[in-house]
Automatic annotation (TrEMBL):
Residues 549-651 form the Spore protein YkvP/CgeB glycosyl transferase-like domain. It holds the Pfam family Glyco_trans_1_2. The keyword Chaperone does not apply. The keyword Transferase applies. Keywords: Glycosyltransferase, Transferase. One of its GO terms (molecular function) is glycosyltransferase activity. This is Spore protein YkvP/CgeB glycosyl transferase-like domain-containing protein. It comes from hydrothermal vent metagenome.
Amino acid sequence: MRILSFNWHTPYLSMIAMLDHEFEIAPPNIETDLLGSWNEEMRPAPQNVTPILRQQMQDRIRQPGYYDLIIGHNVKDIAMSKDIKTPKLLVFHNKLSAEAALGNQPGIIDEYRKYVRQLVSGVYCVFISKTKRSDWDLPGAIIMPGIDVSLYGGYTGQIRRALRIGNSIKVRNLMTGYSLQEEVLADLPSLLIGENPDIPDCEVSKGWEDLKKAYRENRLFINTTIPPFEDGYNLGLLEASATGMPVVSVSNPTCPITDGFDGYVCDGAKQMRERVIELLDNQSLAEEIGGRGGEMAIQKFPMETFLEKWDSAINKAIEVFSTGLAPSAVFQPSADRRKKSFNKKMRTGRKNVIVCYTSYPPTTGYYIERAFRKNHNLITVGGKITDYVIDAWNLSNLKEKAKDHDIPTADFTVDIEDMLKKIPGGFDPDFFLWIETGLGGPPEGLDKLDVPSAAYLVDTHIHTERHIEISKAFDSVFIAQRAYISEFNSAGLDNVFWLPLACDPEIHGKADLKKEFDIGFVGSLTSDRRIALLQRLAEKMDVRYHRAFMREMTDFFCKSKIVFNNAIRNDLNMRVFEVLCSGSLLLTDFADGIDEFFEDEKHLVIYNDENIVERALYYLKHPDEAQTIARQGRELALEKHTYERRVDEIVKTMERLTGLDN
């Protein structure tokens, strides 16, 4: 097969070139002559790679059948070739959010995503990590990098110096963490290799062998890829690990290193600096840690898996082109939904359950765990929120600390095989439940479970297509938004159930506090409609906004005569149930399913954009009516809409999969 690609990333192209195809590599599709067809200083061109000029590419690409496949590494590649009748595949190396932030254009994300979605309608997409696919919100395969450790090795660490590698790291500081590197390495011996003309004393690699020599001889490698804009690893980290070089990394949800075992993962500059100095002063420790890092690279980034997945992606790209199917129609996740029966029936009464989610307090997973523990035996597994995520998600007002799980993991995405090794003896689970939190993907290796698996998906109104793909790996799926069940069914998923969100009376329950203001609102101010509605209310009454969580949020509700709620996409959100539980009057817009549970003017008050001010003023002038509605809403929430009731539904549904052992 003759494949055309473009030299945006020579090292990555050299890995793809390990496939048994002929590759012609053209300069990238940007208006510059600085980037050629291949960079010999980074990698020698393999025998099956032919660098060509831009004009040669333009002449050949228009010859019908000359190329069997076009592989792009930037949206510009697909835009340039959109009218060429040849199968295409696009690799996403960066996050859309990161590119928008680098260009100081965060407002373009939604429109640009729509443009790209249309552009790649007949193109098969490959993402180099789960976070990249999640950020772009497009269907496609996840192919994590592979590393051929046989090409590396020979670490000595004889030079007492830290190594860092990267191009344009200063201008891409929000991704690369350049300023953090400078803070960590101040007055310490270090070497920077890459194309960085704006950084004094930066060296440019003299070639592939020169780069490998730097990995072998320098004492340690420093990694500062910053969330949420970048993954916790890059090719430099993998190459250093494959050489046997120890890595000191900043904390990142997707960092592959286990702290203190095969590298160091640190929460900030101070801790990183301490670890760097420790390794600079202890060569034998560096050798020990680096050796285990090499084993990590073999286990988590095998080249064989990388090439197998690329073979599959190429075949699917051709299938998309030849059949006219949408890419999502041929995409299948690595662990497809298991259609199997279970030999072991579920025990009656109290269940043994494994619950998996990323730990931080104001999340559905936290409330579900609390409810499960009241009536069942539980083991929790997963990572926990980091300081970087707290900053990125604007959670600085969160006073409660994330707890450690019974089986803590370094990564937000849990590896089932690793988890099974850590389950305490004597704990025989009845089923496994993964709860979406927005951090990390679904567990890897679900096929290794011998008990039913379930997922609880909360934000399907935002990530519909991605959730449909995720669901194929589970035996049962619960979704918080009823409106999307038909889309799951159309995709061949029948074990999908509506499980609305709920309240936790111990956290969201009523407090005897004086009403201090007319309208209260807790939530994000990112929606133009939401802001406009609040501004209209504020013209006529006292409106207060607070960024609060957990009990502090509930107390704010209790001090509000009326609590305003606004759905993002017609979703029946957490706030509906939490406000009702607090005993304050809920003023909300319509959400799918709300009328199945609650009656307008009996349990809550439903507004539209035209009557919101009128409705709010009426109940401020008629406090007795408002109190009656709020009381009735609270009573119904406590009776039917607690997380304990939701857990009961989960258990009953899972029992039906296996039957009960009587």
